[in-house]
Amino acid sequence: MPTVAPLDLEGHVVGVHFLGDIPFFATAAGTIHRLDGGAKVEEAHQGLITFVRDPFSNSLLTGGEDGKVLRIAPDGSATLVAEAPRKWINVVAGGPQNAVAYAYGKSSFVKLADDTTKEFTEERSVEAIAFAPKGMRIAAARYNGVSMHWVGTNAPAQDLEWKGAHTGVTFSPDGRFLVTMMVENALHGWKLDGKANDARHMRMTGYPAKVKSLSWSPKGKWLASSGAPAAIVWPFAGKDGPMGKAPQELGTRANIMVTQVAFHPAEEVLAIGYIDGMILGVRLSDGKEALLRRPGKGGITGFSWSGDGKRLAFASDAGDCGVIDISA
Question: Is residue 114 part of a domain?
């Protein structure tokens, strides 16, 4: 049975991420708790809104109600990346060559390593940003679709249109697909082939609630999602992704919603967190389940696997967080 090392924090914990072997927990109040030989606390923001791991470097990025964007290093030190007084920064993303994207209102910004900043303006508010896995390119989710921009050129945006509010965005690891989360209890996807007018649509519907968590399997064959009383896992191995295919439903619990999903970094094993704080590990090949944590005080708000895949850190909206040792 896996062992759980609990960590009780005050208030809502918005997320958790590992840097190396050290987990970092972020609270909505703006504090970062770094677990390294005892909890170390950094007052990062006056109200923290977003907390993400930079997939291109060994660092974390945060945005807050104070209009600041910070980069957090493995030693816990914070560097100011950008500042927009009197703005709320709820959209940040890390890119190649130490680039950082952030957004507020109808504008996306990309801060480059040489301190220059590129601005891209949309017709509607920007709700999410993702960098493509290759090349300096961003996708900005907005109302009625996504705008894709090449950061280093003045080329016009590639607009991917689909009616509705798009609140999150992710590229598949190979860059062949782009998927958004929608207010309308659905995912929407596009098959990208480099031609502006030929991106094919993928509709992924039937969710009883909004999808707020997505996770790609290590090789990008599967995309797991929350928003139902099971983890909904869509197949992306074929050339057309999930078009015409049914998803797998893993970890089904009657009327208890999945709030977070996270694939193991090396294996097709999925961690599933629920609104009652329970956590399951499920193997895709046969659906075998392992109870990783019994229900707690609050719903699971964040997951992070350690690099070696032996530990899983989790965050909760009631502050009852912890680290699960899978190898125990």
Answer: no
Residue 304 has which token pair? Answer: 């992070």
Can you say whether the dihedral through the CA atoms of 73, 79, 81, 87 is positive or negative?
Answer: positive
Is 285 among the domain residues? yes
Q: Which helix (H) or strand (E) element contains residue 124? A: none
Burial class (CB in 10 A: 0-12, 13-18, 19+), 123: exposed
| C-alpha span between 289 and 106 (Å, rounded) | 44
Contact 256, 229 (CB under 8 A): yes
Total length of the chain: 328
Give per-residue pLDDT as tens, 137-152: 999 999 999 999 999 8
Question: Alpha-carbon torsion 101, 164, 188, 160, what sign?
Answer: negative
Residue 292 lies in a domain: yes
Measured distance CA(242)–CA(189) in Å, rounded: 9
For residue 218, tell me if it sits in a domain: yes
Q: How many domains does the chain have?
A: 1
CATH of the domain at 217: 2.130.10.10
User: In sequence order, which residues have a C-beta less than 8 Å from that of residue 32 and are 6 or more positions away?
Assistant: 24, 25, 26, 41, 42, 44, 60, 62, 72, 76, 78
pLDDT in tens, 158-203: 999 999 999 999 999 999 999 999 999 999 999 997 555 556 899 9
